[in-house]
Amino acid sequence: SQQGEEDPQALSIQEGENATMNCSYKTSINNLQWYRQNSGRGLVHLILIRSNEREKHSGRLRVTLDTSKKSSSLLITASRAADTASYFCTTVGNAGNMLTFGGGTRLMVKP
Amino acid sequence: EAGVTQSPTHLIKTRGQQATLRCSPISGHTSVYWYQQALGLGLQFLLWYDEGEERNRGNFPPRFSGRQFPNYSSELNVNALELEDSALYLCASSPRTGGRYNEQFFGPGTRLTVL
Questions:
Q1: What is the pLDDT of residues B78-89, one digit of tens each?
Q2: Domains of chain A
Q3: Distance from CA of B13 to the nearest CA of A (A)
Q4: CB-based contacts of B86: which residues, under 8 Å, 6+ apart?
């Protein structure tokens, strides 16, 4: 079964609006990472949050982590058409370094 | 600083042939990971190499293999290609800092098509 599961599967918003994506995971983690993938190309690392952190900011991105609920959220503020992509959360457990991915959230930002 | 590079960009093979995919990590990174992104199956972990050794492999048959060279670049070999091997193969690298592993940086991928 997937370790990271994103919700919703698809999200369509207007430019300028905020986009919120959620991620749930099953086992204990070392850290959680969010990646973006544009149209079947390589993944771009967005942000990493460690298990002892609760919130992290990077530009227009805000990530929260709730280890008691085994969940994370990614907020993109003031979205742009260029933010249109698939977003994945991934986790790194304590037993190894390979990433496990959920199905991702497909975000479409309409100009 | 150059990112992770992969070659070739596209690869077309026929069923039963062998495919070799190449990856060069970011300078200073010792770990290389391979992932498969097949249509409808999402991103799945294939192999992890660190310091020239295979550290872990995902749930893939033995015809998926690879190696890491002394300069930390890596090859992924897929033997006896099957139609369902058609996918985007992504390579990622990460540094090893203080014994703890960090975020992975991905290359642009190699799109393998098996006819």
A1: 999 999 999 999
A2: 5-110 (2.60.40.10)
A3: 20
A4: B38, B39, B112, B113, B114
